[in-house]
Amino acid sequence: MKNFRKIILLSLLIMFSATVNAQVLISILLGDALNTPKIEFGLEGGWSHSYINTIDGSDPINNFDLGFYFHFLMKNNSYLSTGVKVKSNVGASGMPVYSMDDPDFDAVYEGGTLTKKIPGFYVPILFHQRIKQKWYVEAGPQLGLLYKQLDIFEVEKLGGDLEFKLDVKDQYKHIDAGLLGGVGYKFHKTPKSMSAGVSYYYGLVNVSNNPDYKIKNSAIYLFMKIPIGVAPKEPK
User: Fold this and answer.
1) Is the pTM higher than 0.70?
2) Closest alpha carbon to 210 in 143, 114, 124
3) Cα–Cα distance between 62 and 79 in angstroms, integer?
């Protein structure tokens, strides 16, 4: 119960941290307390390639992701894996701009491109199975809490690049959800060690309130997991 309270406290602190540096600092300070024989805690970071699978002609966007993770030992080499992707964006680019019902604005951005940037906190809830101590597979649902959505208008005119950001959060639902599956490789044979892998998220929920767009997000993640407060040692 004591460890559970620490986990809840850490989650709240990180989700409301103003900067990524605050997240890293909090994680390092509490890493020793959160790692137990049956719980592995650490930082997860990497690169994601996101796109909207319901809009034809859109291009993917690349993002940097950062968060934290927990592996809860259930039995033998089977774990429940969860955490929070605190810094994570989905969306797409390369779409044609739409009219703002302003002739002057429309004339400036005519022929430009539109990027939909959709930040969110994502929480995976995965069954995590270790294979021969170093490899693992994991799969399950992933839930997202979306905030501060932007439509970014871009055009190259007048000898330079023009950009306009429009807050469109009222056009989105707050909750995203889908399926996540992946594979990873641990660098040591100990249960708690650094690992790297790849996973794929397929969005099942239309997050758009705009009848002109049906938006289901998807992403490919390349990630690295670094346990905090433990030093990997090879078994004797």
Assistant:
1) yes
2) 114
3) 30
The angle at the Cα of 49, spanning 214 to 161, to the nearest 5 degrees, equals 80
Choose among 147, 158, 133: nearest CA to 91: 147
For 227, other C-beta atoms within 10 Å of its C-beta total: 22
Beta bridge partners of 180: 140, 201
Other Cβ atoms less than 10 A from the Cβ of 69: the count is 21
Task: Name the token pair of 80.
Answer: 């429940």
Q: Token match 């996973």: residue?
A: 199
- Coil, helix or strand for 107? helix
DSSP assignment letter at 97: P
Helix 20-34 to helix 2-15 angle (10° resolution) is 170
DSSP string, 9-74: HHHHHHHT-SSHHHHHHHHHHHHHHH-BTTEEEEEEEEEEEEEETTSTT-B-EEEEEEEEEEEEEE
Report pLDDT digits (tens) over 209-226: 988 789 999 999 999 999
CA 235 centroid distance within chain: 33
Q: Is 168 helix (H, G, I), strand (E, B) or coil?
A: coil
CA max distance for the chain: 74
- Tens-digit pLDDT profile for residues 170-204: 999 999 999 999 999 999 888 788 999 999 999 99
